[in-house]
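Good morning N.,

You mentioned wanting to compare the apo and holo forms, so I went ahead and generated the holo version with NAP. This is what I fed in:
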Amino acid sequence: MNVDENPRTPVTVIGLGKMGTAIARTLVGRGHPTTVWNRTGSRAAPLAALGADVARTAADAVAASPLVIVCLLDGTAVEAVFETIAGAARGKVIVNVTSGSPAQARAAGEWAQTHGARYVDGGIMGDPAAVGSPEVLLSFSGDRVGFDTHRGALEDLGTVGYHGEDAGHAAVEFLAQVAVGYEFLIGLLHTFALITAEGADVVGFAERVAGTVEGYVPLVKSFGEAVAVGEYGPDLGSLHVQRALMDDLVSHREALGMDTVRMREIRRLMDRRISDGHGDQGFSSLFEVLNDERPHRDEAEDE
Ligand code: NAP
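and this is what came out, ligand included:
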């Protein structure tokens, strides 16, 4: 069921920072009767000029619409605002797109359940200026009925994905997507440092890397499949062959006085996998060592 096939479903937006304002402006533009509230009331004026209703309190704003989108700075702000809307939450679908941790999302879901509301957690990847275009990716998880009911309104904001009923999974997706970018980019910057330390042409190198990076795209999917089933082919060549390069990669960095922590980690993981008798497998099989070395959840929580 998707009642938002009627694009005029009323929506409340709580939090009018850069992202909340972009969300509210988009909803007004798509014809949703939109109610807004912000702690600093003056930030609502441009939206009022566009036709949004400005609520006096956060509880009044929640009472105004069946769908309530919360977009605040962080989990502390969400907790502060939730305390003030407890009496108005019953029967509402609360979609919280404030960035946060899976644990915060699950706690917010429990809070909503206690107060008779359906809770959907969300993460937004994209620029406020692009909200309303398919470039903006929104990940949601949590109450399925709440999500399905208002999917249409949420799709007005960008490209939408639903990651299941665990309220924490949208945050897992968001944090993992951000982390993949950071892991890749810090490796790239370390390599640029190596190129410049050698007096080589960093711009030309970057252009060539932009081409070779495309070759890794099919590996992203095949690694995911290998990890899911625990079967590892000799992707990137066998570990025996790849290991032969590792000492050169480490010593090249050492010779330039550069950080070697990532290359040493890869070498150690390869050594462990080879000594476990899997040297004929490929790079993806290092996942097994990482997974093996990860403390079990209970142990991690005890620390
Ligand atoms: P922002 O411009 O700094 O706005 C923060 C909002 O939180 C303001 O409405 C602020 O109200 C409110 N707030 C902070 N503490 C509060 C409290 N204790 N009680 C009530 N309200 C409080 O931030 P933003 O850029 O809109 O980001 C909002 C969320 O979107 C964040 O979780 C961010 O990670 C996420 N996001 C942002 C971007 C981006 O590029 N901006 C991109 C993707 C995701 P006041 O106006 O009263 O200070």
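The chain has a mean pLDDT of 94.

Happy to go through it together on a call whenever suits you.

Best,
F.
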